[in-house]
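Much of what follows relies on a compact textual record of a protein's fold. A record is reproduced here so that you can trace the correspondence yourselves:

. . .
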Amino acid sequence: MKTSRLAAVAGAVALTLSMAACGSSDDGDTGSKGDSAAAGFPITIEHKFGSTEIKSQPKRIVTVGLTDQDAVLAMGVVPVATTNWFGDAPGRIFPWADAAAKAAENPLGEGKLPEVLNSEKEFEKVAALKPDLITAIYAGLTQKDYDLLSKIAPVVAAPKGYVDYGTPWQEATTMIGTAMGEKEKAEKMVADVEGQLAKTKADHPEFAGKTAVTVSAYEGIFIYGPEDPRGRFLTDIGFTYPENLKKFSKENFGESISAENAEEVDVDTLVWVNAAKATYDMVPTYKNLRVSKEGRDVFIAEDDDLYIPSSFVTVLSIPYLIEKEVPRLVAAVDGDPSTLTN
């Protein structure tokens, strides 16, 4: 973003925030102090930009992080806004989160859906929503983005030590839960889902010692790294991330390699987040690889029920993934093309 544009946005945000503050200076001060004290507020959250103090229990939450809404819903609140990534579910509340959404407190009113932001940088729209908390964990915020959002409301950004879009779902859930005054609930939900993953791993010893990675036919072959949620899901259920591929994602959640280097992804199980035709068009030599000849691949096209949850990988979507994706991984890892369900 150019400096002049950034300054203009900052000015607009400041004006919007000032107007919002004039009309809602008492919001949350009456009737909520007791609840906030009981939930342990004020709370300080450490993250990669420093720390954020949340003085009282938030009710109007904007999720700038692309998958953060699932953790917010799991903690019992419907966000006032979510941020578009892909898919067209109303309010970007997807089927695996429907039950949580129906049971959650809705600051917008019964049955109303979150506004959907088009990007992580719609600062003026965020300010107009008058949030009392902004989450930006599964996000790629810069320091300038964080500073602008912090002028609107407390911001919970990604923790230190991870690439952008690389925070483990466990930490994302716990950070958001803590910020909402629901730390124990978050920890319990994380433990429950980790238990489901551990059971899946134990139930499928055939995954042990087998290499697996998720890729897509983008600018050659885009390899999702070991810190990407897609990669973490595979290792959580027993697969091993290929050592030869770690060099491609040291500073980002993933990286593309040329189609000429397709042999790099000749692993025991390969998950393509695209249709088979896209792979064969982008990588003509793919059919010559062992992973293709032995039917060790899973193709998840855009019209596949797994297309969105396979990329979300949240506390709410993982049980759905276990149910729907694991059987296809079982069919792929055996090296028998006749068992494939693609």
The chain has a mean pLDDT of 88. The two ends are 42 Å apart (CA to CA). The chain is about 35% helix and 15% strand. The domain at 43-183 is CATH 3.40.50.1980 (Rossmann fold).
